[in-house]
Amino acid sequence: MSATIEFYVAQAEKCSAEAEASALTQVRDRNLRAAAAWQAMADKLLHTEKLRAEKTAAVAAEKA
Fold this sequence. Notes:
This protein is mainly alpha-helical. It has 2 helices and no strands. The protein has one domain.
């Protein structure tokens, strides 16, 4: 159900490659926007996982 960072990064790379391969400006721009959106989702998920790990570590430290 949940997407992974690797999936988001792969989609961003795919969109970037399609943008580079496109001769049409509008298609290239669309793919660049999509790549930026996928990368933003990957960055957000990475940040969320980092915060979750820090919170888990803090709770474990309190219990110890």
